[in-house]
Design a protein that fits this description.
Elements lengths: L5 E8 L5 H11 L17 H6 L6 E9 L2 E9 L7 H9 L3 E7 L6 H12 L3 E7 L8 H12 L7 E2 L8 H11 L12 E10 L3 E10 L1 E3 L3 E4 L5 E3 L2 E5 L3 E4 L1 E3 L3 E8 L10 E4 L18 E7 L5 H14 L4 E7 L3 E8 L2 H13 L5 E3 L3 E2 L1 E7 L2 E7 L11 E16 L3 H10 L3 E7 L4 E9 L7 H8 L5 E11 L2 E8 L2 E2 L5 E4 H18 L7 E7 L2 E8 L15 H21 L6 H11 L1
Parallel strand pairs: 1-3, 1-4, 4-5, 5-6
Antiparallel strand pairs: 2-3, 7-8, 7-16, 8-15, 9-14, 10-11, 10-16, 12-13, 12-15, 17-19, 17-20, 17-21, 18-19, 22-23, 22-24, 24-26, 24-27, 25-26, 28-29, 28-30, 28-31, 31-32
Helix pairs in contact: 11-13
Length: 601
Amino acid sequence: MSLENIRNFCIIAHIDHGKSTLADRLLELTGTITQREFREQFLDDNEIERERGITIKAKAVVLKYQYQGQSYMLNLIDTPGHVDFSYEVLRSLKACDGVLLLVDATQGVQAQTVANALLAEESKLKVIPIVNKIDLPTARPVEVMAEMENTLAIDPEEVIEVSAKSGLNADKVLEAIVKHIPPPEGDPEQPLQGLIFDSVYNDYRGVIIYLRVVNGSLKRDDEVVMMNTKRVFKVEEVGKFNPRMFSTKKLEAGEVGYVVGGIKNIRDIKIGDTLTLADRPTKKALPGYHEPLPMVYCGFYPTRDTDFKEVKKSIERLSLNDSSFSFEPENSEALGFGFRCGFLGLLHMEIVQERLEREEEVSVIQTAPTVTYEVLIKEPSGMKTIRIDNPAKLPDEAKIVEFREPVVRLSLIMRAESIGPIMQLCTNRRGIFIRTEYLSPQRVILTYDMPLAEIIYDFYDKLKSVTRGYGTMDYALMGYRASDLVKLRILVGGVEVDAFSTISHRDGAESKGREIIKVLRKEIPRHLFQVALQASIGKRIVARESIKALAKNVTGKCYGGDITRKRKLWDKQKEGKKKMKNIGRVEIPQEAFLAVLGRRE
């Protein structure tokens, strides 16, 4: 098909503004799926996506559309809306020439609406603004369009009013795509340049690559090379998404599709790499993507009924499908061999664990999530800055000159009556006020600089509670700022358990330590000797609890008689307990780890 008749676009919006529902209507209108095949959120084929009602992975599909007697190929990518999956959106934008920016007519402009619109603007893509859910009784399209004009500089005359659920005006969206989104630039005669924007592992076919062909063409039996990894393979199949995969003769410039080449080693693939022909390579690789910077870290360790090798294999397969998830092996005295994993946020971490347990059928213990810190240390050779993603890796306190924590620029959108409680919440979390902007007389954007560690645990829940469900948030990393941080160590029987240790601000460290050891006191069973539970900052013990020893009545067989016999038995028991305390090992059940982690979440 001619490049003039191809359109590559994606749908971007805040979470739950109707992206997947609009995609459903476009699939129906173009006849891509039949009425018999249809189900709501058709492109959300993952079980977790359908249960939670959110999009986790971007999905590609080819739509065939007739307009004014001409046939058009519309390559649609449906994207996630949650802040934790913004890297998926960024990758999708690189494969597109335009976007549909969707705004809910009842909720108006939200935090991720602004963030995604800025991403599209930075990528220099044509934006088609749409107000969705206009058929709802609480819809206020005129006010919402005014908010879009004030916040995003969008002309209300350009906005398309639709109801994705009923299909009202969905045909106007298809017309706007053909009229306003430019066709892709590219030359079918040039050497092959294909951008790898995603991939998935199949047990029978190996790695399946998703790519956009920028220049040239690709067909079966071509020998191709990846310009970054230098790996060469022979193409076994090329095809497109309809929305299921179907094979075609070839992929040409401007088209989006998949490639199968019998690639068994997942390390051969790098998202953002450029694919080219081995016998006629392109001179220049495509720009690709910036590596995502993990914001939250935690440890994944196999449970007793799961093998370490199984967990390793499963994590590797999952990381191929989710390039924003990183991992490296680590060892814990308490939990054994496992992996230190990096995520873009807490929801991302939760989804990865759930996918491991459901899709890969492995069971893991997750340690307390922590952010990445910077530490300035003094060495004989001079000052050195190191990054710490695990409290166990923290150098000796005497070496530390400065402790820095990650700070984010936090944007909060809410109703005007919630300003006071939200400002109080942000102040309690060590936030620094930046500015207030009014979207309308009823709705406000508050901007704060805040430590990431204060956001990742329960800030979102508190925000929803204080704003009665109307508040939304978005954040972007600003850098690292010096702060009064300490390592909170948890000792069980005098031995530090690194899985429980955390880095915390000095003001809240003592109360956090007391909470942890109170939970442990309930969860760790009694032993034959007394077990001391302690929380310490440096060498100072700030909290302590004791688990009493199991009591055995050694004088139960003595009936009357001389008291000296009983005293001998009691002394013998006391010596035994003293010896046991010195050589006995405290068994910490997995339930204790889960209880502490559950408290922190």
